[in-house]
C-alpha cells in the first residue's frame, strides 16, 4: 500500500472506452491491457550500436554484439549516443554524421528514445580547435551545434547541451579550445550561448545541463542560469560511483537539494560496479587505470542490491524523469571497470535480473478486465504505452497522467 | 622605478595652473602641494565611534577612547559602522537610527567615508523575525532597507547590501528569518531583491556583495548575479586570517580569480593578528573562544610584515579600491583576538607604524615646485585630495586620474 502511494506520480487511473468501427460500445468483452513502454526513461549508454547498425562489426564478433544489443533492448527504452567532438569530427569538416544517424535510426526503429551527449565539453573536444583564435573556436562551436542539432532533429531530440561547466574554465590537465572560450564567456555566459543555439535549431528538444559536481557549486550555477533566463529542461546529474555507492543518505540529500529548482532531474551517467572499489584518494576517475578489474560474485550481489535501492529511490522521486546507466556491459566499459549489467561474455549479472524485474514486472502493468455496458474498462497502471487486446484485435494507446477518458476503436 | 610602475594606476601627472582673482597667471612663485587624503579607501571597523559621538562613554574611559579615535583618524579615511539588524533594532520598531546617524556624522565631519554593514544577513539578524511568516519577513527586510538607506543617505552612501549568501540558505547553526527567506528566493534571487531595493532608495550609492567564501562557490554566484542583471558596484571579500596569513600565493590567486569580472574589489574585513594562530581545524571562527589571546612581541613583528606585504599587493592591484581592517584595536576586538593595530592600552603595534608609513609617506605626495610663465606647476602624485600653499594662501583641489589641467584661483 505504502509502495503504491510512493509511486502515485508514476501512475494513472483512466476509463478506456472501446467502440467498434460504427462507434458502438463494445460491451461485455474480455480485454487484456499490456504495458509496452514506460513514460519514465530507463536509459543506458550503448555506443556499440554504432558499429552494429553500420554493419562494421567483424564477422566473428557479430553474434556476440547482437546478443548484447538484444539484452539491451529487453530492458531499456532510452539510449545515449556519443557526440564527443574529437571523435565525431576527428578531422575538421569530416563529421561522422551518417554513421551516427544510422545508429540513432536503428534505435528509434526499436522504440528507443535517443539522447546525444554532449554538444559542448572541454574533454574529448576537437584538438584542431587549438589552432584557432577564441573567436574562431566559438564560431566553430556554434556551427557544430547548428549542423548536428539540425542533422539529427527527429532522430535525437534530447541533448546534453553542455557538460561539466563547474570545472570547465579551471580545467588545467591540458589546454583545449572549450576551456579557452569558457574563460572568455564565464560559466553562465557559455551555458547561455550554447543553450540559445541548441534551442534555435531544435526548439522542441529537451535540453540538459550536465555535471558530475553535485556540490553547492552546481546548485549555485543552476540558480545563476535560471535567474539569467536560461531555459533548462532538465538538470543532469552524473553519478559514477566507482569509489563506492553514495548510499541512501547522500542520494536523498542530492535529490533534495537539486529538487529545490522544481525542474525535472535526469540521472545521466550512473555507475555502480561489481568489482573492488576505486581508492577514495583518486580525484579524477580517469587517473585510475589498471590492467584487470574483475567482476566478482560477492560484488555482483552488492551491485544488484545497490541498483535495486538506487533505481527504487529515483523512480519514487517525483522530479526524476530518467536514469541512464553509463556502461551496459563490462565489455568495453569506461575505465575497464566491471560497471555493466552484463559480464564480458554477455552473461547477465544479478543487477540485470534485478532491474529487469523492477522495470518489467514491479513497475509494469498487465491488466485483464471486461468492458461494461458503455464499453468501458478501467485501467490503473504505470504511465506509458499500452497494447489492448480484445477478441483477437490489437489497439495501441498511451496512458498519460492528464486528460479525459481514452476512446479506442477496435 | 619598478615600484612606481606598479602604482601607475594610483597616480596622475597634471598641470596645475595658478591664477589670481583677476585671472592672471601667478608666475614664478614657490608652491607646496601636500596630499590631504587618498582616493583609495583605507578603512577600518570602528564601532567605538558610536558611544563617543553619542557621549555615552563613561567618564573614566573617555580619554582612552578619544585617544584611540585620534589614532584611527591619523591613519584611515574610511570606516565601517555596524547595522546588524538584531542590534540596530533589538526591539521591533525601535531602531538606533539617531545614534548611528550621530556616529556617521561624526565620521563624515572628519572626512571619513562611511560604509554600513550589512543590510541583510542571517547572523545577528532580528530575532523577532522568527514570529513572522516568510512573506512578512521579506516585507520587514524590504521595509528595513527602505528606512535605513533613506535615513542615512548622504551620510552613508556605501552599503554591504547582503552578506555571506553562499552559506545563507544552508546555514544550520540556528533557525533565523533570513535563512528562511533565502531558501524561498534562492541565492541569486535574494541578492537581486536586496540590491534592487537598496538601489531604489539610494541610486548613487556604492553597493557591495560580501562574503568570506573565496572559493569557486563565490565566483559562480557572482557570475550568476551579473548574468541575471544585478548591478554589483564592488565585490566584497572578507579575509579574516586568524588561522594564519594567506600568503602571497593565495592572495594573488584570489585577486586573479575575482578580477576576471572586471569589477572593483573591496577587501571588506581584513584580520591579521599579532597572537598565536587559531587552530586550523576550527571551521567557524566563532567557535574559537578563549579567555586570553595575548599579543606578543614576536607575533607583532610577524603581523607588521604581513600587513606591509598584503597592503602593498592590494594597493598595487588595479581593481582593488578599498581595504578595511576589521579590528582597529585589541580592545574590544572580534573574538578577543589580538587583531588590532593598537594594543589594549592604545599603544601602537609595529603594524600601525608600518601601515602609517605606507599610507602617509610611501604612497603620499608632498611636492614643492615653482610656477612657470603660465603660472603652471606640474604635479605627479597619488590620486586624492591636495592642499596647495603659495605665498601664505591655501587652496584645496582633487588630483584625479582623468581630466584636463587644474586651474586654481589663489
TrEMBL record, chains A, B:
Q: Which reaction does it catalyse?
A: Endohydrolysis of (1->4)-beta-D-xylosidic linkages in xylans
What Pfam families does UniProt report for this protein, alphabetically? Glyco_hydro_10 (PF00331)
Q: Name the source's superkingdom.
A: Bacteria
Query: In what residue span(s) does the GH10 domain sit?
Result: 54-358
Task: Alphabetically list the UniProt keywords.
Answer: Carbohydrate metabolism, Glycosidase, Hydrolase, Polysaccharide degradation, Signal, Xylan degradation
EC number per UniProt: 3.2.1.8
Q: Which InterPro entries match?
A: GH, GH10, GH10_dom
Q: Which family does this protein fall into?
A: Belongs to the glycosyl hydrolase 10 (cellulase F) family.
Q: What is this protein called?
A: Beta-xylanase
Organism, by scientific name, is Gracilibacillus marinus
Amino acid at each position: 500500500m505504502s509502495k503504491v502511494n510512493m509511486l502515485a506520480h508514476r501512475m494513472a487511473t483512466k476509463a478506456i472506452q472501446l467502440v467498434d468501427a460504427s462507434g458502438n460500445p463494445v460491451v461485455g468483452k474480455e480485454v487484456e491491457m499490456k504495458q509496452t513502454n514506460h513514460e519514465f526513461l530507463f536509459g543506458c549508454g550503448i555506443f556499440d550500436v554504432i558499429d552494429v547498425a553500420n554493419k562494421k562489426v567483424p564477422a566473428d564478433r557479430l553474434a556476440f554484439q547482437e546478443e548484447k544489443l538484444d539484452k539491451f533492448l529487453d530492458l531499456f527504452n532510452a539510449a545515449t549516443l556519443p557526440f564527443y567532438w574529437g571523435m565525431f569530427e576527428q578531422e575538421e569538416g569530416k563529421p561522422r554524421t551518417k554513421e551516427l544517424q544510422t545508429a540513432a535510426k536503428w534505435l528509434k526503429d526499436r522504440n528507443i528514445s535517443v539522447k546525444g551527449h554532449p554538444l559542448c565539453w572541454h574533454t574529448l573536444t576537437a584538438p584542431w580547435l587549438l589552432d584557432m583564435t577564441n573567436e574562431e573556436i566559438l564560431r566553430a562551436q556554434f556551427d557544430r551545434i547548428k549542423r548536428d542539432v539540425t542533422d539529427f532533429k527527429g532522430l535525437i531530440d534530447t541533448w546534453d547541451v553542455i557538460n561539466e561547466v563547474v570545472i570547465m574554465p579551471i580545467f588545467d590537465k591540458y589546454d583545449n579550445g572549450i576551456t579557452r572560450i569558457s574563460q572568455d564567456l564565464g560559466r553562465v555566459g557559455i551555458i547561455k550561448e550554447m543553450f540559445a543555439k541548441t534551442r534555435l535549431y531544435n526548439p522542441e528538444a529537451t535540453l540538459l545541463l550536465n555535471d558530475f559536481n553535485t556540490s553547492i557549486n552546481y546548485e549555485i550555477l543552476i540558480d545563476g542560469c535560471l535567474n539569467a533566463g536560461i531555459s533548462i529542461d532538465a538538470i543532469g546529474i552524473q553519478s559514477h560511483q566507482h569509489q563506492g555507492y553514495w548510499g541512501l543518505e547522500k542520494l536523498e540529500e542530492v535529490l533534495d537539494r537539486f529538487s529545490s529548482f522544481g525542474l525535472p532531474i535526469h540521472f545521466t551517467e550512473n555507475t555502480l560496479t561489481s568489482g573492488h572499489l576505486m581508492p577514495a584518494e583518486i580525484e579524477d576517475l580517469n587517473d585510475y587505470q589498471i590492467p584487470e578489474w574483475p567482476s566478482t560474485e560477492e560484488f555482483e550481489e552488492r551491485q544488484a542490491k545497490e541498483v535495486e535501492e538506487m533505481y527504487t529511490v529515483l523512480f519514487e522521486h517525483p522530479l526524476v524523469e530518467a536514469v541512464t546507466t553509463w556502461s551496459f556491459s563490462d565489455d568495453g566499459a569506461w575505465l575497464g571497470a566491471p560497471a555493466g549489467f552484463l559480464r564480458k561474455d554477455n552473461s547477465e549479472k544479478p543487477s540485470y535480473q534485478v532491474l529487469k524485474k523492477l522495470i518489467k514486472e514491479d513497475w509494469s502493468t498487465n491488466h485483464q478486465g471486461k468492458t461494461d455496458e458503455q464499453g468501458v474498462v478501467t485501467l490503473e497502471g504505470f504511465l506509458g504505452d499500452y497494447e489492448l487486446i480484445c477478441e483477437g484485435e490489437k489497439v495501441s494507446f498511451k496512458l498519460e497522467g492528464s486528460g479525459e477518458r481514452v476512446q479506442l476503436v477496435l
